[in-house]
Amino acid sequence: EAQVTQNPRYLITVTGKKLTVTCSQNMNHEYMSWYRQDPGLGLRQIYYSMNVEVTDKGDVPEGYKVSRKEKRNFPLILESPSPNQTSLYFCASSRSPPPASYEQYFGPGTRLTVT
Amino acid sequence: QKEVEQNSGPLSVPEGAIASLNCTYSDRGSQSFFWYRQYSGKSPELIMFIYSNGDKEDGRFTAQLNKASQYVSLLIRDSQPSDSATYLCAVTVSEGGFKTIFGAGTRLFVKA
Question: Do B5 and B89 contact (CB within 8 A), yes or no?
Answer without folding.
Answer: no
